[in-house]
């Protein structure tokens, strides 16, 4: 357009195009709006978790009793320690990321390379920890009995300490074998069978006088209800239907199956974000090493992928609170 | 906007000399907040079990501390502090409004379903 207008008239310039009222590049702005939409996806998940929890507010599993394990420290009850470690790793990798962005502003290639590398390592440690958490959760530790109505009965001794099935149940003769596709109808199969039957559990329970049953229901002060010996036996005999060891999408020894479902979906979806973040970081890392941004005289790509990486950290802060703390 | 970072946090109470220093300062702050959360989560002090507005005081503290952490991650790590007012509002207000709305509706509904179950219209073991 004509260049003379610029100096004389400022009013007409507003609509002449080429304005950047938000003073952000296209790419960065689109990353922000992607983050907005992704934040809504995650809040959808977390709000749905809240819905299910409010629906079973008096019978929801207590997270402190579920996530008590730390690698290499077997048999110790250390609630929250490992998750706190994971949170710290992710915040730390966020810091190295923002340091990489800062080094990018100073066009310092060596520093950007180093900090990007550290960020990738942090991401990998986090994803690995999450895989370990999943494995521990799926394997379970105490085992429980599920009732006809889908409630979970757990076992405790007289002092209220949890007792594992393998400590008092002796496996009996099993006639029932796992149905596999190769030895029946080819389209019918089933998952692996539990190590014990409900009859085995009842025998073991009768043989140990100090055992009691703990139901899902929470008492006034937020503890699980423990039944008397007579009630326990009655409950086990009339309602016990299935032995549950560990957790999957249908059954969950920790309590409501919904708890396991949300655990898998929310931490899984977040873990997938971390994984894709690591992949993006690796791509950017190689671009930095090859000098692509050096030639471009702008490290804005590092900034954009950094925004995504911080967002992943941000989501984890909320998952940490609503899944493990509250 | 490369070099012109705002270097104050806590409304100017703490000022940093460089952006790198600010990053470490924010890290220390976030770590302290996380440590407080973990310690409260492990010990669960009896005094914080009182109900305030239908929820335990402890849970309110957790949620508020989480929002504080989210604020500093967004403002200092994601450099929202240095963006223009327009971009900041377009991103933050939209998200917060939609999330509050969704949370309110779902939690309200969850509480209602709980009441229906609780009054005994549905029995799960029979």
TrEMBL record, chain A:
Chain segments annotated as transmembrane: 31-51, 80-100, 112-132, 262-293, 305-325
One BP annotation, GO: aerobic electron transport chain
One MF term in the entry's GO annotations: cytochrome-c oxidase activity
Main location class: membrane
Single GO cellular component term: plasma membrane
Record-linked Pfam families: COX3
Residue ranges that the Swiss-Prot or TrEMBL entry lists as coiled coil: none
Keywords: Cell membrane, Membrane, Transmembrane, Transmembrane helix
Domain of life: Bacteria
Membrane topology qualifier: Multi-pass membrane protein
Residues of the Heme-copper oxidase subunit III family profile domain: 1-326
InterPro entries listed in its UniProt record: Cyt_c/ubiquinol_Oxase_su3 (IPR024791), Cyt_c_oxidase-like_su3 (IPR000298), Cyt_c_oxidase_su3-like_sf (IPR035973), Cyt_c_oxidase_su3_a-hlx (IPR013833)
Keyword Transmembrane helix (UniProt): yes
Protein name in the entry: Cytochrome c oxidase subunit 3
UniProt source species: Aestuariibaculum marinum
TrEMBL record, chain B:
Localization terms from the record: Cell membrane
Regions that span the bilayer: 23-43, 58-78, 90-107
Xref: InterPro entries: Cyt_c_oxidase_su4_prok
Record membrane topology: Multi-pass membrane protein
Main location, first listed in the record: membrane
Pfam families documented for this protein: COX4_pro
GO cellular component terms, semicolon-separated: plasma membrane
Alphabetically ordered keywords of this record: Cell membrane, Membrane, Transmembrane, Transmembrane helix
UniProt name for this protein: Cytochrome C oxidase subunit IV family protein
Naturally occurring in which organism (per UniProt): Aestuariibaculum marinum
The organism's taxonomic lineage, starting at the top: Bacteria, Pseudomonadati, Bacteroidota, Flavobacteriia, Flavobacteriales
